Amino acid sequence: MRVLITGGSGFVGQRLCQQLIAQGHEVQVVSRTPHEVRGKLPKGCDIRDSAQAFVDTPPDALVNLAGESIAAKRWSTEQKERLIRSRVTSTQQLIALCEQLEANGQPLPSVMVSGSAMGYYGDQGSKVVDESTPPHDEFAHRLCAQWEAAAKPVEAMGVRLAIVRIGLVLAAGGGTLQKMLPPFKLGLGGRFGDGTQFMPWVHRDDLVAAIMFLINEPTLSGAFNGSAPHPVTNAEFTKTLAKQLHRPAIFPVPAIVLKAGFGEMSQLLLTGADMRPARLSEAGFDFQYPTLDKALAAIV
């Protein structure tokens, strides 16, 4: 199978490329700077600067993971626009590739797995959240809703669309743990605010396996929560991480400090959703790391 990936040089994308190459698939990667990302990706990846550049070698599947980090900068009006544009534009490039293939009479991909995030649901308090839960209207939801909407036109062309609403991705060397581990290793970690907010999380290997599962299962379409079946509160997360590191977690960060430091973006740290992967579980997907203690034991 030939798989075209946007965001292939990212934390999840790199691992996905590795797994696909290991299984004998052809991997195509879209990057604005092919020469800079080549060293991050396995040998054999075909890296080009736009999705349209692959019109001569039509992919069998699309995986859309590109997007600027939502937590990289404070959410100014300009930054919000950049966050939306980075996701929508890359998605529209894949739509344009499909339109060009269709116009040329070339075969279209059979499936598109397109990224979204747990932010789609917004702040849900303590209630259990599955794919049918109505969202809470806030910026994170509107960002994800526009990202998902940008992928919808492929369905009219007969391409199966699966959307993955991704939780906090855990693995060594990046993702959620990259900034958390240093203070926790020094015994300076602690909960955010009162710690009651939920943190849907997923081990990177499980997320990559779920993406490949969605590529390969021809009956699966629509939205899927890409998170482990046992989410935890922030207090439980910090306690479990500290236990794995054999360190205390006695330095909570007050909500007022986070709000002062991050502004509206502090919502990412102080609110959450008890998000469950109901549709993946119903489809028979098995998580290698269903619980946080098992995932962290493998990572740290």
Features:
300 residues, alpha/beta, seven-stranded parallel sheet
User: How would you classify the helix and strand content by structural class?
Assistant: alpha/beta
Shape field:
globular
Low-confidence blocks of residues: none
**Beta-strand percentage range:** 15-25%
N-to-C CA distance: 34 Å
Please describe the biggest sheet, giving its number of strands, its sense, and whether it closes into a barrel: 7 strands, parallel
Task: Output the helix-strand order.
Answer: EHEHEEHEEHHEEHEEHEEHHHEHH
Mean pLDDT, rounded to whole units? 96
How many individual helices?
12
Helix content: 25-40%
Give the total of beta strands: 13
The Rg value, from CA coordinates, equals 19 Å
Strand order of the largest sheet: 3-2-1-4-5-7-11
Family: Belongs to the NAD(P)-dependent epimerase/dehydratase family. SDR39U1 subfamily.
Protein name: Epimerase
Domain DUF1731: 253-299
Domain NAD-dependent epimerase/dehydratase: 3-219
Question: Which helices and strands occur, and which strands form pairs?
Answer:
Elements (H helix, E strand, L loop, with lengths): L1 E5 L4 H12 L3 E5 L3 H4 L8 E3 L12 E4 L12 H27 L7 E7 L10 E2 L9 H13 L1 H4 L3 E7 L1 E3 L6 H9 L12 E2 L1 E3 H13 L5 E5 L5 E2 H12 L9 H8 L4 H4 L3 E2 L2 H5 L9 H8 L1
Parallel strand pairs: 1-2, 1-4, 2-3, 4-5, 5-7, 6-13, 7-11, 8-10
Antiparallel strand pairs: 9-12
Helix pairs in contact: 1-7, 3-4, 8-12
Written account of the structure:
With about 300 residues, this protein is of the alpha/beta class. It has twelve helices and 13 strands. The strands form four sheets. Strands 3-2-1-4-5-7-11 form a seven-stranded parallel sheet, sandwiched between helices. It has a two-stranded parallel ribbon with strand order 6-13. α1 links the parallel β1 and β2. The radius of gyration is 19 Å and the shape is globular.
